[in-house]
Amino acid sequence: MTTRTKVSICLPTCNRPELIVECLESCIAQTHANIEILIGDDSKDDRTQQLIATRYSSEPRIRYVKNTPSLGQARNVASLFARATGSKILLIHDDDYLTVDGVERLVSLWDRQPDLEVAFARQYEVDLAGHVDRDVSDRLNADFYRTQSAEGLQEPPGRTGLIQMFPNNGWMANADLVRRINYKEQYGMCCDYVFGAELCLAAKRVYYLNEYVSFYRKTEVSISTATKRSVSAASVSAYRFVRNLRLDRKLEPARRLALRRIVPIVVSVYSRNNDPVKGLRIALQHPYAYRYGFSMRLYYHLLMIARSMLMPGRRAPVAQSR
Question: How far is the C-alpha of 51 from the C-alpha of 240, rounded, in Å?
């Protein structure tokens, strides 16, 4: 089955021609050759378009589209899903890349589990130059519950998306399910988290492989950098999404675990943006996010909230996030 399975690698890009080459080379080098590489280019200039035309004109598996005008993150990714002709879809961002056998390792899981719908694995963390830090990579995966003991079919499947165990790229899933869930523009910078959560909630069989299949690059240039301290930050949208989800009772512990990660970030965002009352209300609604008050982080945030209340009309100074 593995060699017969066509995998559509969806690659959204925006203004990063200096990084997309490594991503593309990793796709072309895959040991699983039955692939197509779909590129959706949201760049403001034609550097990426020229690079593709010059360097990859003889690569028939690459299907490039320049979006004019730009579509934005969610619509760009959704357009790639719509163009995919493979039975499996894999998403990889332009600044990240795959291990040489990443596609093969993921697609082979369907040989063992024919009714599988979603699969994901571990990610290496690399710096801008592409250097892998194995200790940091181990911590990254542990922080997102990707450990040896968790390997295998996930129960309940929806838990993996809620607690961010499911990564925002480097995953594989059945194309029909991916298109049914899709990226949604109304969630803004949070669209990738919402997609992952909804995908896993909709799937009946989700598999975690405790092997490295992709490289996650940490850069200063991020799609969310400009808004991460504002009330339009992805964390604020994620909080609203998780709070409003209708879930089976067995998934309530996963909601609680998700909010433990999100709530302190959201409280910090509101305290930095002259809305201390909202920040305080959210903190008091979720005391478990601060270990029921026994947390220096809570006292730090309360100090920020108090400062904001005492200085109406002035924005609180930006302090280092903790």
Answer: 40
Single out the residue of 63, 129, 121 nearest to residue 95, CA to CA: 129
Residues of the chain falling short of pLDDT 70: 1-2, 220-232, 292-302, 304-305, 307-322
User: How far apart, in Å, do the first and last CA atoms of the chain sit?
Assistant: 48
Checking DSSP bridges between strand 88-91 and strand 152-153, what pairing results, if any?
A: unpaired
Helix pair angle (252-272, 234-244), 10° resolution: 140
CATH 3.90.550.10 residue ranges of the chain are 7-221
Considering the domain 7-221 in this protein, what is its CATH number?
Answer: 3.90.550.10
CA distance 62 to 20: 13
Q: What is the DSSP string of 242-305?
A: HHH----GGGHHHHHHHHHHHHHHHHHHHHHTT-HHHHHHHHHH-GGGGGGG--HHHHHHHHHH
